[in-house]
Amino acid sequence: MTKRTDKPTRPSPQRPHKAAIRAASAKTPKVVSAKLAETRPVANRAERSAERRAAIVEAAMDEFVARGFAATRLDDIAKRAGVAKGTLYLHFKDKESMFEELIRTALVPLISRLAAPPTITGPVRDAVEGFAEIFIREVATTRRGDIIRLIVSEGPRFPAIADFYFREVVSKGLAAMHRLVQLAITRGEIRQKELARFPQLIVAPAIVAVIWQSLFARHAPLDGIAMFKVHLDLIFGERRTT
Asked: 52, 207, 217, 218: which has the fewest C-beta neighbours closer than 10 Å?
């Protein structure tokens, strides 16, 4: 008679209870997209860097106006900006590049706006007068005027700064004024044709207003806009009153 041997039976694996699955799932850390995790810190760093750069430029402006460009030290700028001196070099290589940034941020956008006026349908004089009024109002009596006065006083000793200012601001302003004068001559509004060669004569009173504001305004306040209108009377002829 053959003896039957019973094989041991293995217990079948039990399926985990649904509640246990949910509990385990809750304990498992969720994976956050690397892109989303990195975006915010990068954005914050960029914002802090931009704010620090703006603070340095503002401090440089204050020091340049108070001490003059030549006498201003990088240590003074860093102290006023509330940063370490080494931080300055993360944004600018020297004082000249800081001054160029002042020109680039404070004056270039303004002159670019003035140099691209809308299509002129009325008298050219009105466009020239509008150009001058904006310039005098937004430069002569604001901190932008301090930048120009610094260039006038210290540009001869720092020709690189003067060159940068001419290239980015003066040349664009003169080109725009030349186009306006040429249009006025073509229309017969200006009789002196040689004036097209010297657009500097048109804007001269605006520069006088900028310089006068810092040197003599406390002795004899100057209405730069009124002076400019009288200047345009000499060029275009007096306005006719009806």
From this structure: 218
CA-based max dimension of the chain: 141
C-alpha–C-alpha distance, residues 109 and 97, integer Å: 18
**How far is Cα 151 from Cα 148, in angstroms, rounded to an integer?**
5
Tokens representing residue 85 in the block: 């001196």
The token pair at 195 is: 């004036």
Residue entry with tokens 């217990």: 11
> Which residues have a Cβ under 8 Å from the Cβ of 77 and sit 6 or more positions away?
56, 59, 60, 63, 88, 95, 98
Count of residues in the chain: 242
What is the phi/psi pair of residue 57, to 5°? -65, -40
Provide CB contacts within 8 A for 41, sequence distance 6+.
Answer: none
C-alpha–C-alpha distance, residues 188 and 191, integer Å: 6
> Which burial class, exposed, middle or buried, applies to 97 when counting CB atoms under 10 A from its CB (0-12, 13-18, 19+)?
middle
Residue 170's SS3 state is helix
CA distance from start to end of the chain:
141
What are 196-229's pLDDT values in tens digits?
A: 999 999 999 999 999 999 899 999 999 999 999 9
Residue 31 has pLDDT above 60, yes or no: no
Whole-angstrom CA distances from 45 to 38, 42, 50 are: 11, 5, 9
Is 88:73 a contact under the CB 8 Å cutoff? no
